[in-house]
Amino acid sequence: MKILIAGSYITKFGELWEKSLKDLITEAELGVIKNSKFDDEEIEAIFVSNMAGGIFDGQLHLGAMASGVLKNYPPAMRVEGACASGGLAMIVAEYALLSGKYKTVMVVGAEKMTDVSNQMATEGLNGAADTEAEFGSTFPGLYALMAQRHMKEFGTTRDQLSAVSVKNHKHGLLNPLAQFHKEITISEVNGSEMIAPPLRLLDCSPISDGAAAVILTTKDLPNCPEIMGFGQGMDSLSLAKRKSLTTIVAGVKAADIAYKMAGIKPGDIEAAEIHDCFSIAEILAIEDLGFFKKGLGGKATIEGKTTYGGKVIINPSGGLKSNGHPVGATGIKQIAYLSQLIRDKKIKTGLTQNIGGSGATAVVHILGGKR
């Protein structure tokens, strides 16, 4: 049974103070309906991705909110898995389709993060860590530990970390919906404010508002990208219990399942939207996904192997760093963005990687389509 992406939509990402969480969900749902071959009545269920609506907006029961956007009030549920909420919502929707219960469903992800203080945003996001074992930590601090270890084991340099942000900002110039449209240099990243050594301000993805949606169907439709494979992996919530700080094991597990399901290898992937919440996260990801050998991700990035004309295009949207990171929307945005590249015949095969927290949850999808 094939699962096709029959429509996609992404809102503008950024500091959208004039829009509420409900506004963003509504825009994404109505937008994806307009961009698809379906109308309201044909959507049999909705799966909503959101991490912190109850904290940032005082709004829970998002399934009911999303259902109310459509005339027929289809069954709807919210899925949460920290920053991997979007990827998990996709998996729940896919299993619902593969079970035969539904033939056409919608997946929508949204987050409204900029209306609260930086302190509240940080505290809300910290709920994705082990709040008992890692009390007082922050995600920049946790990923900084991974960066320190990677630099010690493999000689990864400060310039190589900075090259990730430089490349993603350059890609973001090509995406009109990205939060940032500004090129930066390695020296600018190196000189930005220190957050958690070695990570600096320009190593970090921003606080963002935004939404994205896709319509998935098992109906036989022409010229629709296909979900060729998907996988989910898990690991310890606490970094202290991990076997390695230089490999996100959950991501490796998820990728192995997705590659096997799709029947392809890393070398078959032309473009990938991956979870660059911090610059080190992209370096870890391109190694864990099999694009480059362990320890060579930073070197590959600074040598231009992860951009146009290189081995594989990593984060053509600008990634979380330039495109923005409204956490509940990110995993859906990745799918929507690559599906549009496939639909426009710019690539044939793409991969998405969505990570929750510091790597306890990971979801990988592989998308394909005929040229």
Structural description of this entry:
By secondary structure, this protein is of the alpha/beta class. It has a domain at 4-117 and 207-217: Thiolase/Chalcone synthase (Peroxisomal Thiolase, Chain A, domain 1, 3-Layer(aba) Sandwich), CATH 3.40.47. It contains 13 helices and twelve strands. It has helices spanning 21-34, 53-56, 62-67, 85-98, 118-126, 139-154, 158-172, 186-191, 249-262, 279-288, 297-302, 319-323, 327-343; strands at 4-10, 46-49, 76-79, 104-112, 194-196, 199-200, 209-217, 226-234, 271-273, 313-314, 349-356, 361-368. It has a five-stranded mixed sheet, sandwiched between helices. It has a five-stranded mixed sheet with strand order 8-12-11-9-10, with helices on both faces. A hairpin with a 4-residue loop joins strand 11 and strand 12. It starts with a strand and ends with a strand.
Question: Features of this protein?
Answer:
single chain, 371 residues, alpha/beta, Peroxisomal Thiolase, Chain A, domain 1, 5-stranded mixed β-sheet, 12 strands, 18% strand, globular
Whole-angstrom Rg: 19 Å
> Main β-sheet: number of strands, strand sense, barrel status?
5 strands, mixed
In CATH terms, the superfamily of the domain at 4-117 and 207-217 is Thiolase/Chalcone synthase
Q: Largest sheet, order of strands side by side?
A: 1-7-4-2-3
**What's the total helix number?**
13
- How many DSSP E strands? 12
Global morphology: globular
- Helix proportion: 25-40%
- The top-level CATH class of the domain at 4-117 and 207-217 is Alpha Beta
Q: Ranges with pLDDT <50 over ≥5 residues?
A: none
Euclidean distance between termini CA atoms: 21 Å
Round the mean pLDDT to the nearest integer and report it.
97
By CATH, the architecture of the domain at 4-117 and 207-217 is named 3-Layer(aba) Sandwich
| Beta-strand percent range | 15-25%
